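Hey L., structure's done. Input below.
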Amino acid sequence: MRAISTSTSSPPTAAAGSAASWSSAFWIRCRPAASPGFTARSRPATTAAPNASSSAMVSGCSTVGKLPNSSDSTPLRSMSRQSSWISGTNHPATLIVSFHDLAPPSREAAERFLEGLDRLGLGPATFLLVPRWHGGPPFTEDAGFTRWLGDLVRSGHELCLHGWTHRGETNRGGLFTRLTARHYTAGEGEFFLLDESEATRRIQAGRALFAAAGLPCDGFTAPAWLNGPGARAALEASGLAYYTTWSTLRLCPGGPSLPAPVLTPSSRAAWRRTVSKIWLPFWFALHRRTPRLRFAFHPVDFSYPEMEAFLWRLLRRAAHNRTCRTYLQAALQARPA
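Output:
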């Protein structure tokens, strides 16, 4: 297991791209585009327990604060390091690599994901964090996990809010809506049927937990990428920098939706894994010249060695002539000059 590098080298600064004219007031409050990457720092020597009881709602662009100190007696198995990233050529084309469904139960899979990135020399990545996985305790109640999240951010990766519980209703709406909620999402399309008020409440509650742990929160990805009308309205008013859909990266508030096709398998059944191995190379070939390409891993992918090996091979191909950027870096790159 490798310790976090103390090198001050970081992924290259992305040049600001052009975008449709839209309100830039948000970006005045955001992190400067001149530094889209984060500089890796050595671990603090002391421990500050996260305040899990904080209920203050978050306002503004980011909840950047003092990160949890990281003196966990169990060292990280691997932490993909900036000094090993091979994105120094600064290709204008972007690759956004993400790990979904991050929560204390999926930490082992996340560490395997980091090891794979380290082997390929790829990074930074975006980790989609679920504040209360399937309605369980807040992630802040696991002090070791919370310190580990701080290590992720310090090493250059991004944390993105990924719903609240990752559980959704399945018995509302018409037949198509119920079938989508029940079968396409396996009952996990949490933000698909929420009204604006409830979506706002859950987004604010999630950001409050990030803030209590001293972790930045600049974007949102709904479970299964399903944002219903209520969720979209709540996100536009949330003060976040971006949210994502299955096919786009949406800049907030009121900004353009940037095409960003995603390569992601479905691994929860044998027939789905077989179809994924046929479909994903075709989908990649179709979108290999797109300015922004995404590659999304889920914890279940690491339960099947043959599927995991296939995904690493495909990711290596997808990374050719692209610069790895986090969602936030890609959003900052596309903001108005």
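The chain has a mean pLDDT of 78. The first strand starts at residue 94 and ends at 102.

-- N.
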